[in-house]
Amino acid sequence: MALIHREIILADLPSDIIRKIIRLELDSINAMKLVSERWNHHALEYYQDRIDRPDIPTFYLDVEDGNVKSIRLQILEHEPRYFGVEGWTTFAKDQFCHGLFDGDSNHQWFKKEPSTDPNLNIPFARCTRLRTLIIKANLQNCANLDIIREVFRNVAPDEIVIRDIHGCINEPFLLARIRHTATKHLIFYSDRGLAMLGVDSVQRCSFYAEALTCIPSIELLMTGIKHQAKHSTLQQQVQGMAYKIKMVASESLGQIFSRHNLLSTGSEYCLRVTFTNG
Predict the structure, then answer these.
(1) Can you give the residue range of the structural domain that contains 193?
(2) Is the dihedral of CA 79, 85, 87, 89 positive or negative?
(3) 27 and 122 inside one domain
(4) What is the DSSP letter of 103?
């Protein structure tokens, strides 16, 4: 009888109290939906209102030939059930994009690989915002683009990272994404040298210039073996790229600023180059 009495009290709580409990106990939100129809209504109401929902710091998507090879998600340690990833594998701070993450002891990485039937709607529908979306995919493959478009239909990331640039990046596709979303920052990552990031390509520099009319900054991130690159050579390449971007930029773009930072850790180096529209 005591249990029944307790359930009746929970079901009869005022709506404003129910809403507060839901916000404080997100990890149990699925269980709270079962208390009563009103509890279920307010839980669904919480999902629909993005203002007070948690952020997703980082979401990583690896797509090959129209199949999702891997999904990796960074969230707070107590949030996996809320985001529907409690069955995913946890792992320590990842190094799949060297130099991108400062690390946060309050966050945990979760992964699902291979992901044969990914439901990308659940985590994105339950977050206020996605800070960083990392994409590893051939952007010329139409099947890959269908999956990536589905992600953008659900969430607009603050920052987009294109990982492992080994060829054409499909400039029209990326321009359409940053023009129609709230994206503020674009990062291109390569572990195969600045040539893969377009340091010698007028077409790529033209894309960077056009993208800077839509977003405040673009960053190029490159990693490699230290003995394979000289600081002076990298600096000359960066300056050459900045000159090309300025040459192809439209008059409306204004002044373009560039800066670079070279970090060495053991036998490896990490070069960050940032272009901003002044």
Answers:
(1) 56-277
(2) negative
(3) no
(4) -
Residue type, 226: K
Give the end-to-end CA distance of the chain in Å, rounded to a whole number. Answer: 70
56 and 131 Cβ atoms separated by less than 8 Å: yes
Q: Do residues 9 and 100 share a domain?
A: no
The Cα 229–Cα 219 span in angstroms is: 19
Residues 12 and 91 occupy one common structural domain: no
3-state secondary structure of 219: strand
Q: Count structural domains, the chain.
A: 2
**Could you tell me the pTM of the whole model?**
0.76
Tens digits of residue pLDDT in 190-215: 877 666 776 667 788 888 888 888 88
Helix 2-11 and helix 37-48, axial crossing angle in degrees, nearest 10: 50
pLDDT in tens, 104-143: 567 888 888 776 666 677 788 778 888 999 999 888 889 9
pLDDT digits (tens, 9 = 90+) for 155-169: 788 999 998 765 668
Query: Nearest-CA neighbor of 65 among 16, 138, 155, 126?
Result: 138
Compute the chain's Rg from CA coordinates: 22
Strand-pairing partners, residue 192, are none
